[in-house]
Amino acid sequence: MSNFRIFAPLAIVMYIIVPFLFSGNDYLMGMIATALIIAGIALAWALLGNLGGMVSFGHAAFFGVGAYTSAVLTMDYNVPVFLAMIIAGFGASLASVFMMPALRLHGPYFALAILAYAHIFMILATEMTSITGGAAGLLSIPNLPVFMGFDFGTKLGGYIVILNIVSLALVVYHLIRRSTYGLALKAMHDSELATRIVGVPATQLKAIMLVVSAFITGCVGAFNAHFINFLDPEYAFSGEWTVIPIVAAIFGGYRTLSGPVLGALFIYLADQLVFKSLLPQGHQLILGALLGGMILLSPSGLLPIITNMFKRFSKKGDAQHVES
Amino acid sequence: MLKVKNLSLNFGGVKALQNVSFEVREQEVLGLVGPNGAGKTTSFNVFSGNVRPTSGEVTYDGHDILKSSMHKRVKFGIGRTFQIPQPMHELTVRENLMVSQRFGRPDKKVDQQRISEILDSVNLLHKSESDAATELALTERKALEVAKALATEPSLLMLDEVLAGLETTGKKLFMETLKKIRKQFNLSMIVIEHDIETISNLCDRIVVLNFGKVIAEGTPDETFRNPEVIRSYTGEENA
Lengths: 324, 239
Ligand SMILES: Nc1ncnc2c1ncn2[C@@H]1O[C@H](COP(=O)(O)OP(=O)(O)OP(=O)(O)O)[C@@H](O)[C@H]1O
Ligand SMILES: [Mg+2]
What we know:
The complex is a heterodimer.
Chain A: H1 3-22, H2 26-50, H3 59-77, H4 81-98, H5 107-127, H6 129-132, E1 146-147, E2 150-151, H7 155-178, H8 180-188, H9 192-196, H10 202-228, H11 233-236, H12 240-252, H13 259-278, H14 284-297, H15 302-323
Antiparallel strand pairs in A: 1-2
Chain B: E1 2-11, E2 14-24, E3 29-33, H1 40-48, E4 55-60, E5 63-64, H2 70-76, E6 78-80, H3 93-104, H4 112-121, H5 138-151, E7 156-160, H6 168-184, E8 188-192, H7 196-202, E9 205-210, E10 213-218, H8 220-225, H9 227-238
Parallel strand pairs in B: 3-8, 3-9, 6-7, 7-8
Antiparallel strand pairs in B: 1-2, 1-4, 4-5, 9-10
Bound molecules: adenosine-5'-triphosphate (ATP) and magnesium ion (MG).
Magnesium ion binds at residues 40-41, 83 of chain B.
């Protein structure tokens, strides 16, 4: 199925129908915005996994570094919020540069190394009390601003900002994927040697992907800081910012463009709206079971199932056409 | 163009290469032969940068290449194939060659016309849009292996048993293809092959390895009449 056939309806739903139906409901808009935060990280994570074949357990580090960078810049240096969010992306990219030695490792070794790095950043945020406020955290982080006459500090405004961040990330991902670089990166997922032997500088390409992925995650983390106006190290660097996006990406199909976004929307909203009321304690268990089921049923995720459904429908249509 | 001097490589206790020296000349096809485990593939791995030797020198057109990364050596003009074909997964045959051109050619140009020419020269043009990892027969996988290397516009092409496993007619056809390619692309080649008839037919000169050592060197005729070479081969058959 072409990208267009998935993204056109998705864009209409997200940009028109959702704001039209729910803009009065702050609770729901806040929740969908949070689902999009997960979607943004899931997308950044999947970019690294799909293009280059790297499994990262360290995305919470980029999220946290982005969040703190933007919070500190706006609070202590009066940098405008949107500018600070972009600088936060670069801050997270810089953090990823320190992780580059791990790129020489493969598979689980890379995953574990990057997990360790992520933990170091949490410790740094706790210890650098004068800048980060230490374990007590930062309160009253500035809201998203009024910009061109529109107040982005509302739930609806926040939703539009994170939706734009995710959309931009999708465009960047798409452009990388269809370039020759993207072809080489896709091939590196299962056959790195085959690419190296024709001259692909595999480690450098992976490094670039790590920087891009960190940038996206950092911007998302910065957004979150201004969306909820509060940060502490345990929260900003929480493993949940790694685990839930991974679950979402794998559930939706991490080798596809839209899978991580659909997965995040489905997983987060189902969890908050349905599973939480069914099982107030331990509702994450249902997510675990769901992911397990999905991996058994369709290892490449939700998206192929949807695609097949579409195909079956259109095949039925064709068959009738022939008969009639 | 390729000069190998006193090359040695140990894998733990295994002496895979011991003081190996030889040379590949401009426009020459050199056969690299020897029994299983003699160190043929290991030699290729050293030249292409997959492994580092314990000691010795390898120069290409005067450059010391041992310090260069694998991908730099491709740009110097060294191309190779693998004994077990290594297609780029998830890409079509044509996309495999696009990546090879974009990253392997010194000018980094993707040239679709040229890709078609290369695919045509290895009889793979009709498979351009096939999935490289799943939709090719053995001969076609081997042809793709050669085509990928050609797409990087090498001056030296190293072929590791590209004819092995093919049946007689397939082998004959592929050999003719290789002869044609050599002329068409102005190549020097190193060819690893077990079949003596094939080697004699294809190569100008031969280097024989046994237990990591060069035991003979010369034209096909003189080499395969050399008693030590015959012994190393019959020794293998008895083993
Ligand atoms: N990565 C490695 N680690 C340890 N030992 C190795 C490695 N690669 C090769 N060897 C050993 O080095 C020796 C030479 O192996 P090589 O693959 O070069 O032989 P070959 O001449 O290509 O044989 P064949 O005709 O079977 O392909 C063998 O003893 C082999 O077991
Ligand atoms: Mg071999």
